[in-house]
Specification:
Largest sheet: 7 strands, antiparallel
Radius of gyration: 29 Å
Oligomer: single chain
Order of helices and strands: HEEEEEEEEEHHEEEEEEHEE
Number of strands: 17
Number of helices: 4
Structural class: mainly beta
Number of domains: 2
Distance between the termini: 70 Å
Length: about 280
């Protein structure tokens, strides 16, 4: 199949937008993916990588800040890699077809450290399951994992067995990882996905729900004791048709909108009470 040239400007714009979003996040979650045969790989959310053989890979990373309980989606799209055009012999960028997986994880920067589930200094946690149970004991849980892929405009879901997913500080680096499959990890022996089901050339996304963060960090909505239906104005026994001065309907020549009338005060000697006319727009 002959390769087509891709406009580099579009790729550069996508990368710049992705980096801007990622830079503002505290606990950035991103999709880490390596296709079968290493035909494509992305290990972070920079949107650019260069292999030792000079192959350039670019992608758009959809990232999200995970700092409280919720449902989140991370994705990669607009995948490009360098290659040689079969007709001209020129080096070009093209969209590869990705099949299977060597690595398929969601990593969340710094979240294991923030939640107190880091495993670096916990000696008795040897396996991925041990590290996941450690996170669960602290109250962290990951559920409702959904994988979606797009190939040639057609969207399909990849079946996932959530009972086989590992999560926690799997590598002991302070990140919280959701490991779907890792050829170099414990999920190699019992994957949560059928690798032959992964087949895309446009995008791959993972949606997941994480809980326990609010309880540990106190990041949920705080209750308030103040009523929300209290009147904002002090009650008054004075009549509502108190006289006012000024023309509140006169348009402003500077802004083109109606001006605001001055507050009028009328002193009334009635049992020492002072009637103040309310300010009206």
């Amino acid at each position: 199949m002959k390769l087509r040239k891709i406009m580099a400007g579009v790729v550069a714009t996508s990368i710049a937008a992705t980096m801007a979003v990622a830079a503002s996040a505290e606990n950035t979650a991103f999709l880490m993916y390596v296709a079968g045969g290493w035909s494509f790989s992305c290990f972070d959310y920079t949107g650019h990588a260069e292999d030792s053989d000079g192959t350039i890979k670019e992608w758009n990373a959809t990232t999200v800040d995970v700092s409280k309980d919720g449902t989140y989606t991370v994705a990669i799209s607009d995948l490009q890699r360098s290659g040689i055009d079969e007709e001209s012999g020129d080096e070009i960028m093209y969209a590869p077809v990705c099949e299977g997986a060597v690595v398929f994880n969601v990593d969340i920067d710094g979240l294991a450290d923030a939640l107190g589930v880091a495993t670096k200094d916990v000696d008795d946690l040897k396996t991925g399951a041990d590290k996941m149970n450690y996170a669960k004991e602290k109250g962290i849980n990951v559920t409702d994992v959904k994988i979606t892929q797009v190939k040639d405009g057609e969207t399909t879901e990849v079946a996932v067995d959530s009972s086989k997913i590992l999560f926690g500080d799997i590598e002991g680096n302070g990140k919280l990882r959701i490991e779907l499959y890792n050829e170099y990890g414990d999920t190699k022996a019992d994957p949560s996905v059928n690798l032959s089901d992964i087949y895309f050339n446009e995008s791959l996304s993972v949606t997941f729900t994480i809980t326990g963060i609010d309880a540990i960090l106190g990041t949920g909505e705080e209750p308030t004791d103040e009523p929300t239906d209290e009147p904002t104005d002090e009650p008054t026994d004075e009549p509502t048709d108190a006289p006012t001065t000024g023309d509140s309907t006169k348009p402003s020549t500077d802004t083109g909108v109606e001006g605001i009338a001055a507050v009028a005060a009328v002193a009334v000697l009635a049992a020492g009470a002072v009637v103040v006319a309310k300010k009206r727009k």
